[in-house]
Amino acid sequence: MDSSAKPENHDPPPESAAATLLDLSSCQLRDLSSVDLLPTLVEVDLTANRLTALDPRLSQLSNLKKLSLRQNLLNDDSVLPLSSWHSISALQELVLRDNQMKMIPDVTIFKMLLVFDVSFNEITSLSGLSKVSNTLKELYVSKNEVTKIEEIEHFHELQILELGSNRLRVMENLQNLSSLLELWLGRNRIRVIDLCGLKCIKKLSLQSNRLTSMIGLEECVALEELYLSHNGIAKMEGLSTLVNLRVLDVASNKLTEVNDISKLTRLEDLWLNDNQIASLDSLAEGVAGFRESLTTIYLERNPCATSPNYVSRMREIFPKIEQVDSEIFA
Predict the structure, then answer these.
(1) What's an example GO cellular component term for this entry (predicted)?
(2) Are 168 and 191 in contact (CB under 8 A)?
(3) Minimal CA–CA distance to 195: which of 169, 168, 177, 213?
(4) Pairing outcome for strands 269-271 and 66-68
(5) d(CA 94, CA 115)
(6) Cβ partners under 8 Å of residue 92, min gap 6
(7) Which of 18, 128, 137, 226 lies 20 to 30 A from 111 at CA?
(8) CB 113 within 8 A of CB 132
């Protein structure tokens, strides 16, 4: 290279992302005393540190839209200052996941909040949600100790509700969530499906509950993904109207036959493993409507999966199959 050549001209660099984003995740900080908090910050990520208190300087970041305090050591007293931080009242995303809180914090001042995450804490009640802005689109309260669905009726814009791994026994107070697209209720103690008249849901998880019946889904015609594994369901029923279903997971139940899904012409993934289905012939009859669409099926640990030429028989029944159990076809 000619050392006398002039350097190439470059356009001036764009405004540094560092001026709007502060990512201190996994730094194991005990406080922020060594950190400059620029007033231009829009997003602050403090995930996986050892914070026990909130730095009051955060309250002055008037441009702040996203604040993640995930995986720290914050308790109820630690997050109390949030309720008076009016300078950041335009916050849209607040993540307090994986801390040590026992209550829903007071976030009343955040009138534009879209995402609120308090999963993986020690929260025993949803009391306090009634004060959360009705602008909310995503609410995550999984892996806590909540016993009742309450104070959510005003969330008309809510699209995702995650309440998995709690102590819920009843599906209730959902009727006003007219925009809800995803409902995650796995690992609770629910015995009966009750969607309170909702028809818009596209993804529903009730895995690892105490269900013995599928009845209650008939009007959820928008459903695309349904997860009902690890329950005590003995019969497939109430599914024939779910014509938009692409994924059906009913693994680890007590099913002996495949019923009520022959009209589901869009089904792509079917999980039936760990049941008591005896006959591949009856299976072939039950899946007549989606033989051409199915790409993945799990049947292992059913009596029928011990049949001679089991995999080749599956490939005959489903001409476009790409995976049978753990076996993937090129």
Answers:
(1) cytoplasm
(2) no
(3) 177
(4) unpaired
(5) 6
(6) 65, 66, 112, 113, 114, 115
(7) 18
(8) yes
Note the pLDDT tens digit of each residue in 184-231.
999 999 999 999 999 999 999 999 999 999 999 999 999 999 999 999
Torsion of Cα atoms, 246 then 252 then 257 then 261, to 10°? -10
Distance CA 145, CA 122 (A): 6
Q: Do β-strands 203-205 and 225-227 pair in parallel, antiparallel, or remain unpaired?
A: parallel
Q: What is the 3-state secondary structure (H, E, C) of 207-253?
A: CCCCCCCCCCCCCCCCCCEEECCCCCCCCCCCCCCCCCCCEEECCCC
Q: What is the largest CA-CA distance in the chain?
A: 82
Query: Which 8-state DSSP code applies to residue 53?
Result: S
Enter the tokens of residue 172. Answer: 């209730």
- In CATH, 211-330 is 3.20.20.60: no
Quote the distance between the C-alpha of residue 248 and its chain's center: 16
CA 124, 128, 130, 135 torsion: positive or negative?
negative
Which of helix, strand or coil describes residue 160? strand
pLDDT tens sequence across 96-153: 999 999 999 999 999 999 999 999 999 999 999 999 999 999 999 999 999 999 999 9
| CA dist., res. 87 & res. 17, Å (int) | 22
pTM: 0.93
User: H or E element: which one contains 45?
Assistant: strand 43-45
Pick from 173, 180, 188, 237: nearest CA to 204:
180
- Cα 252 → chain centroid: 21
